[in-house]
Known about the structure:
By secondary structure, the chain is an alpha/beta fold.
Amino acid sequence: MKAVRYHQYGGPDVLRFEEVPIPEVGPEEVLIKVSATAFNPADAMFRMGLLKDMIPLQLPFTPHADVSGVIEKAGESVKGLKTGDKVFAFLDMTRNGAAAEYVVSKAVDVALAPKNISLQDAGAIPGTATTAWQGIFEHGKLQSGQRLLIVAAAGGVGSFALQFAKWKGAYVIGSDAEETFSKLKELGIDEVINYKTESITDQVTEKVDVILNLSPIDPGDVTKLLPLLKKGGTLVSTLNPADENVAKELGVNAVTMAVQRSAAHLSQIAALVDEGVVKPFISERLPFSNLAAAHEKFGQTHGKVLILVDSSLD
């Protein structure tokens, strides 16, 4: 099969198209024929070696943790999934990923893909939607009628968090660049803040229940968001942490989260997609042959960049 691999850490130029064996399937695993994958900032961070001290990879390595496709083979112990099923998954990021024609996944991480959108578009959902779901519901405990502030609302995670929050019945404020405002309004946002020309702390005049920080701002700036919370409120950051001592003084909570793979969450998200209340924000679609171009956009994208691996699987 064709796969993209890197043999050393570095820039997008280390990515190589190579012929490699189709991976073997264990008893509790499935082999997925890949329809599409998507670019996540973490894919570039792994490739650059920024995470190698915490999470070393076995090189050469095939990146990309988002996948949609069709099950080609199921291990003998797999239940609930079968050959021919259209599926999507957030893969174990420490194992070879979906920048390939086939990928192996633990069956417990795989869910049936939504039916209301194309199988390829489903490849833009898993990692970012799971992060958004866990951030606002598992960690933030967001409820109907509450107020949510999303910092970097137009990214892959933010665009899903916005839609989940509106489905839940929350009031949503989001910060991002002005060129994203029309898309954010289309997705149902209540208030938008231009982070390039406006101060978030000045613009949020009524306190919020939950803050989801998706921006790589430094810990000091994350901490400055804490006074925007109501007593007992929660700030969830996917990147740099807020100062927990300051949080305690203010009577609020500060959480730094790491997303956990969850087929159960993916199934809930698929149901919302099929109901038409949630959709992926895909800013660009690139052919598999141009995967490096997605990596070159690291830090510059809104929504998700989708990589089309096999257009016949849709």
